[in-house]
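Proteins fold reproducibly. Next comes an illustrative record:
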Amino acid sequence: MYYEELASYDRNGFLVIVDKRWDDIDPRGCFDTEDADEIVAKINDETYDWFLLRVRVLFNGHEVGSHFLGGCCYEDAREVLKDGTAEDCIAEAMIEAERELYRLREMLNERVAA
């Protein structure tokens, strides 16, 4: 599936990539307002960008953490980089990456000790 990159960052030796793709979940179920029909119409006519946000954390070219958030709706998808949403997702992916590297280090240490 095609993802469009929104941003990439160097964070403490990790490469963080933030990207998006069209979200295929029905937006009607995501809005509990009287404006749901209007919002869906604006998604359909591309006034609003409806997407799944993906954050990947890479170390030395290997993905070691990721986080996904569906149901994102913005007039411009890049707004997700400014309102704290992407930063929250980055934080989650970084936690996963740190845990994965710790796990891998422990596995390597056991292998070397054997």
